[in-house]
């Protein structure tokens, strides 16, 4: 009997969670006033009006939703292998309860984040190879310390941080700006599946079938920051979704870190601005882990690289490279070596794992 009542309560919570044209704070408030989502569903129109809680458009949206076949929608949802955790349920994350506008419910494919330490990693979609490498390495290092990695599965930094966490055999969670049944971006299907099969999950406050509209991504950013104990911005323009996430994190009392970049570099403007406002600076990943309370282990792979013996030409070529890509003509001019010697040196450095070719004839140091 109790189990049947629980399922019935969830059905009406599913209905109220689906009314995304009404902000979550109002939906939570009306449920608290009425005692349950079912009680809200059964309220007379006049009573709803007299509550003076909803705008005319919101009230119309609510009333129209009650004309649809809820039982049919609920049965369809149950067949999608998606979990739903409304606020107040045991598995609703405590981290979300404490923010100014908690989501009414979280929909999930896979697993939910648990009480372990978690770090959010966000940044530019059109990132540099340097930024991608940092995000991947950071995700991997955190996963190796059993830290959960939270991000948004967008192209660029987000996807790299998820991929790094998977490489580190850890749990990573993607918060989407659409229904969790929709893989967005579409070309991230392998990542979308791998996150779920590796102990992580795809999360959203939006019900299944909700399309990825632009305004939904800034809305979901508060959830990324809320689920994170601290937030790292790897690369960001002056005005970007990553800075919206950073602002949300600061409002929630979270520690915010940024990876510094070159002055005048568009992708570094956002990070440098955050540092100017007092964000923590990530200049060494081992030291960042120490700040989180982890002592770095000796990196055997790095030690091997340091022990590689380079000849004079290889040292010259390696010495003129940085973590931002350099065109081969620049390398020739800086080293004074001829094209063939430079190509031979670059080939050896790539085989040593010290250098990578980011685009055709563009090279940088491998992190």
Automatic annotation (TrEMBL):
Pfam families: DNA_processg_A. InterPro entries: DprA, DrpA_SLOG. Coiled coil: none annotated. Residues 85-291 form the Smf/DprA SLOG domain. GO terms for biological process: DNA-mediated transformation. It comes from the Bacteria. NCBIfam families: dprA. Belongs to the DprA/Smf family. PANTHER family: PROTEIN SMF. This is Smf/DprA SLOG domain-containing protein.
